[in-house]
Amino acid sequence: MTRRQLDIGIVLSTTGSYAAVGRSMRAGADLAIAEVNADRQAAVTLHPVAIDPGGVQSAYGEAMQALLVDRGLTHVLGCYTSSSRKDVLPLFEKNDALLWYPSHYEGFETSENVVYTGAAPNQHIIPLVRHLLCHHGKRGWLVGSNYIWAWENNRILREALSEVGGAVIGERYFPVGETDLRAVARQIVSDRPDFIFTTLIGHSCYEFFRLLRAEAAAAGIDQPRALPIASCSLSEAELPMIGDSAAGHLSSSVYFSTIRSEANDRFTAQWDRHYAHLGRACADAEAAYIAIHLLALAVAKAGSTGFAEMRAALGGIRFAAPQGLVTVDPDNLHCCLRPRIGRSTDHGTFDILHEDPAPVWPDPYLVWASLGDVAPRQAPAHLQVVR
After folding, report:
1. Nearest to 31 by CA among 270, 324, 281
2. Cβ pair 306, 313 in contact under 8 A
3. Where are the domains of the chain?
4. Averaged over 212-219, what is the pLDDT?
5. Considering the entire predicted model, what is its pTM?
6. Which among 9, 62, 288, 314 could disulfide-bond with 25, CB atoms 3.0 to 4.6 Å apart, if both were Cys?
7. Into which CATH architecture does domain 122-257+341-355 fall?
8. Percentage, residues of the chain above pLDDT 90
């Protein structure tokens, strides 16, 4: 078998407001590229071509233009925010290229030019809603960064609360990178909701955690117990950025570094050997790691690195990932992943409070996931659940 050579674009923000996440994604990709390139049986050798947009929205389009048009690349792993993905998607469609998108996201999108290796809404927000309703109550306060990720997740949560007779006590949005958040933290403490759901990202997120903890303490409130903060994006890479207020927060994710399995033991050992300075391995790093391995498997199956051949080969491909078996859904190029709920610790990790018994097929449009049903829901008969 002739081993193919492939330049792959890497467009991740390793500087800027959400650099901590971008650096962990880049590290996960680099780890997988090294493994693929060292595997004598692999069908491809990967050569990364990296551009750092610095968290600047307009820079993503410029980076993709340079890679897809100027250099003629067909595969790019990149983007963290949904706004950046939305911006660059027309470039991939116009140039018959694949974006390997390694991030949880809000759903309500399917493109033949995107492979989604992070969690879809039925794999993070719906499990989190069930957990909050079962353990904390029906009155939520929503605060987020002002873009589509926050708007859509808050809409889903608001509709879920409405279905069960709950209420949204307050809802605010801030520009990405905004850190003047003391007033909203003070208002939330005054309102005393059952929980806070945050979709803030980067520096805004870290400052909010610190300010809410401080305002609660000043009011004599044990914040983690009485005012729990829940998120679908908080990860191990970000806990060191929060400092003394990092412990006690809820996160809904398909991967935590504390998963007990041989595959995760191997992954975290490699991670700690090379990237311990970035914190513990996290979901975003694992999603990038999975994307690279799926790409290599697709090249082997397709016998080509071309867009049409790879697109046709992707459906049903499986990879034994650190989180467990991951399968690409041929209908929508999202992945079958296993939902989990964790609580952050003082050690930069998450205690796993809940995990679904098996991976769950993606439902990006929430056509079969009930928003208000607090009991776990199985996939309909035509969707296979991997056990």
Report:
1. 270
2. no
3. 4-119+260-337, 122-257+341-355
4. 98
5. 0.93
6. 288
7. 3-Layer(aba) Sandwich (3.40)
8. 93
